Amino acid sequence: MEADLRTLYERAAAFHFSEAAIRSLHERVGKALDTGAPTREMEEAYRRALRRYFAGFDTQTRTQLRDLDRRLAELAQAQLNFTAERNVAVKRLENIGAMLGLLDEASA
């Protein structure tokens, strides 16, 4: 289902457009909607501009999420490795303590 122009405009208004061209087009569409005079050409140009603008962010954000997921997986693996290493150190300390206890008993 294709969104109507007003819905697209209102949804897009929640974003800050950093590109002057799309910001200007967005303002023109808003004025045309207010006066009831948006043309088919304006609507088509607006839809194309929005698609280009948001498609770029979609690709960028998906790449960012893949990178973050990879980094989180590495972090989880590092945490697992550190936990295992800590458990080994705790067990070693317990064994050393037992050995020192035996030595203390033998020399007493």
Properties at a glance:
108 residues, 85% helix, single chain, 3 helices, mainly alpha
Strands, helices and their partners?
Layout: H1 5-12, H2 20-35, H3 40-107
Helix pairs in contact: 1-2, 2-3
Characterise the protein shown here:
It is a single chain. The protein is mostly helical and 108 residues long. The protein has one domain (5-107). It has helices at residues 5-12, 20-35, 40-107. Helix 1 (5-12) crosses helix 2 and helix 2 packs across helix 3. The longest helix has 68 residues, at 40-107. It is rod-shaped, with a radius of gyration of 31 Å. The mean pLDDT is 94.
Q: Mean pLDDT, nearest integer?
A: 94
Rg of Cα set: 31 Å
Helical fraction equals over 70%
The rounded distance between the terminal residues' Cα atoms is: 88 Å
Q: Give the SSE order as H and E letters.
A: HHH
Given as residue ranges, the uncertain stretches (5+ residues, pLDDT < 50) are none
Largest sheet: none
User: What share of residues are in beta strands?
Assistant: under 5%
Broad shape: rod-shaped
Give the helix tally: 3
SSE class: mainly alpha
Oligomer state equals single chain
Give the tally of β-strands. 0
Whole-number total of structural domains: 1
Could you write a compact summary of the structure shown?
Helix content is 85%, strand content 0%.
